[in-house]
Structure prediction request, 432 residues.
Amino acid sequence: MDEPGGPQAIQRQIERDFGFNFVVNVLDGACWSFGMSFISFTIILPLYVSHFTTNPILIGLIPFLASGGYLVPMLFTANAVERAPRKKFFPVNVGFFVERLPIFLLAPSAFFLALRQPQLALGSFFILLACHTIGAGAISVGWQDMVAKIFPVQRRGRALGVANFMGSATGILGAFIVPVLLQRYAFPNGFVLAFLAASFLIFLSWIALSLTREPAVPSTQPRRSQLDYLRSLPAVLRADHNFRLYLLTQVVSALSGMANGFLVVFTIRKWGLPDAYASGFSIALQVGLALTYLFFGPLADRRGHKLTMEICLILNVFSFALAVAAPGPAWFFVIFFLRGMVTAIAFVSGISIVYEFTGAENRPTYIGLANTLPGLVGAVAPLLGGWLAGALGYPPLFLTATLIGAVAWALLRFGVREPRASSPAVAGDANS
Prediction:
């Protein structure tokens, strides 16, 4: 008979709480995604910054922080997450201050500073954005490990997919609202209202997340200093050839992201579009997100996340290639629909596939490696993209991203083996 707190008892508790955790995490994901539709890193925030500067390097700071700020810190918190009996502490207790509070301060910053002190407004915007993305990265390993712990392997894609489908479906409403706000209210008031809506919804998502029921599982990992932990990482990579190839794929893919933050700026400048028209691309982005979350989560559960990641990289290549060839601004509704698909698959399958390379004890380390190493490249890529845009123009930038993305797809398709077939994570899921 299994003892209280033993692996079987823990698994029974996870199964018993699955329905409740599914509901509160769907609410968390729905409110979060709905809120983020009001401050889209791809469309709304570049539009906001374009009111202060035309410098492509500064505009490139947004995807720089979105990628590097979020991904790089993960490896440096994985050691603490591995030893924590409950992973929920990181996204709930720590995350309120380091991830969500900076978002709450965007609206007052824009309201009080955008017209009176525009340079200070721009500086405070980037400081708050940096605090948010770095904070999100710092707590993300804990959140991802919590998700892997409370959702069994064959239901993770569906759970994440439904949660984010709900958010993206409501995010379509947000995408309709934002152009109205920007058209009806003079700058910066339209952005202030969008930032306020985002703050309210992101606070609701935190309340839902805090309700998650997670059993405590004491770690068997030995306590070690951060330096000793970092020194152990090369051995982890040497021991897992398949995971090394997957990391290489992600590094190359992150480099192709150099062009992502410049799509809306290119469209505005080439065709002289008003903010309200350009922000309408958010609708196409949210529709792409919603439909992809709905269909690709269950597909990944059945067929594996490697397949859906391959589809993701093909769509990534096609969207940048279409940006080079697009004869008019209407084509960018298709492009942003595809970008929504890429974002959705990368979120659901990019998170979930990492769980399948390893068992529960080493999962935070694998999560950290899979995010921080590509994140270092992803941090530099938008700055390189800004330099290319300034030196050669936007079409050569999009063409470069297309070619690099094609290399990433080839590496994943022909180099990486499906990890689920021989995964210790599947066999050890009951102990997670």
About this structure: The chain has 20 helices and no strands. Confidence is low (pLDDT under 50) at residues 425-432.
